[in-house]
Specification:
With 236 residues, the chain is mainly α. It contains eleven helices and no strands.
Length: 236
């Protein structure tokens, strides 16, 4: 049996060659890329002159999530905006250009897949919610001087959200599942490497971000509650 012939007049010539990224993902990526561009330029002496070499360290100190600061605030019963803001600013600061590049790749790929099902506001809720959850668990488990930086907890939140989308059957024709499987494998390897080989305490934030993303997707997905009930009935 011959496959159906596609006539040129049946094609949508106005359709873009690639599906556009959700605006929420685009804004997150631009913020991360713009900040990293400045810091990389400073590291290489292009920006800031001699003082520029310290910009990355200063950014990590000023905007990274620092566990002792959070503990100090709680112990003294204070609510400091400059400390609390670190929960949502640390994802935009990275330890190196490579660190930021991999975070951007994961963010763009996962954000596109999640954004095809969830609304823009829901994508932002998942990203920032997972980032906040990751930092809070990081604070609760570790007693460390290591500053938490990078978009990885938020990216793991997006992979958790897409896991829920697949589990709940909300992905339609399931396009992108193979790509998702590859990304999930790469991020799982990174997580396992950090856990068993000593990649640093950040793996706790990343794993917590994944769990938070899965839970948040249930709350912000269209038909999430109905999908959960359907799955429960199928198991029953």
């Amino acid at each position: 049996m011959k496959p159906p012939h596609i006539h040129p007049e049946d094609q949508d010539h106005n359709a873009p060659p690639l599906n556009p990224l959700p605006i929420s993902v685009t804004l997150l990526a631009l913020a991360i890329f713009g900040i990293e561009l400045v810091l990389t330029g400073a590291d290489n002496g292009v920006l800031g002159g001699a003082r520029g070499s310290g910009w990355r360290l200063a950014a990590m100190e000023d905007y990274g999530f620092f566990e002792p600061l959070m503990s100090w605030m709680v112990q003294h019963g204070l609510m400091r905006a400059d400390i609390l803001m670190r929960l949502v600013t640390y994802p935009f600061i990275h330890a190196s250009f490579t660190h930021a590049a991999f975070a951007l790749v994961f963010l763009l790929a996962l954000g596109k897949m999640v954004g095809e099902v969830l609304s823009n506001w829901a994508v932002l809720v998942v990203f920032f919610g997972a980032s906040i959850a990751g930092a809070l668990v990081y604070w609760g488990i570790w007693d460390t001087q290591v500053v938490l930086v990078g978009a990885y907890p938020g990216a793991y939140g997006l992979i958790g959200a897409y896991t829920f989308i697949l589990w709940a059957g909300l992905a339609g024709d399931m396009q992108g599942v193979r790509a998702f499987g590859l990304i999930a494998m790469l991020m799982a390897i990174q997580l396992i490497f950090g856990l068993f080989v000593g990649g640093g305490p950040g793996w706790v934030a990343e794993f917590s971000g994944f769990m938070a993303g899965f839970a948040l997707a249930f709350l912000v997905s269209p038909g999430g509650w109905q999908a959960l009930l359907r799955r429960m009935r199928q198991r029953g």
